[in-house]
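Re: folding output
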Amino acid sequence: MNTMNRRQLLLTGATLALPARAVAQAKAPLPVLQVWKDPNCGCCKDWVAYLQADGFTVQVHDTGNTAMRRRLGLPERYASCHTGLIGGYVIEGHVNAREIRRLLTEKPPALGLAVPGMPVGSPGMDDPVYGGRQDPYDVLLVQRDGTARVLQSYFRRR
């Protein structure tokens, strides 16, 4: 078997070994993420850049974060410095790209995701000015009735 046929066989076998869901997810383009934020907020800008580097297309609105949060029905107790909307889901605060992708793949009957406050070490709040500090925080799955459960914890000792 020549080298070209061997490579083709290996690539075909590797592709067949991937779960169908992973292949579909890799081919499906992400919906546009709309973000409402303060025009002067550096951490919001850093969070947007983090998501863009991860492959998200982000449309930024430099105003209306609080009004949009209210309009989308997200309770104030989950508030942060920016509010997003993607695929019909609210994204509040410094949510990790991995959890946004998980939300879009699993499509739970929920309002969206939230990282309340501005935890140091979360995406966008990881500037060198914080000296590498990483505060523990949770990504919450917020239900339509306003309740929430922890979807993923970060920096917690087990």
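--- second protein (sequence, then structure) ---
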Amino acid sequence: MKLSALKLALQSREQIAFKLPNGSLVPAHFHVTEVGHIHKKFIDCGGTVREESRIGLQLWSANDYNHRLHPEKLIHILELSEKVLKLEDHEIEVEYQGETINKFGLDIEGDVFVLTGTETDCLAKAACGIPQQKKKVSLSDLQNEKSTCCTPESGCC
């Protein structure tokens, strides 16, 4: 989800809820402790220099159980961050404390923001000698696709 989509979604909400990939909710008394511009410049294993930018949003839960961040307050925080940090409309990366700091993508499902799992990947598979995944085909599908031009009565054999 991009920053513009998050701000738009917040406008129609009365409360904010984040759901973790395991289905549990981030405690309602969470804080947004950081909004940042994350710029990563790196070289992949194939020798290609790459750059990517994201918006970082860090969630944190403390023991102040009466704390509630309202949508209009989060919009204000995001707009201030845009102005001060000169943020562009990048994808959002959410950090939240688990056993260690976890990084998530962000999506929306009904009235809940969903923290989506992220994965590593090789960006230079050909340079690393990693074969492309072969298309899995069912034998029954192959039988359905056989040509009718080569039947015993067609005279082609």
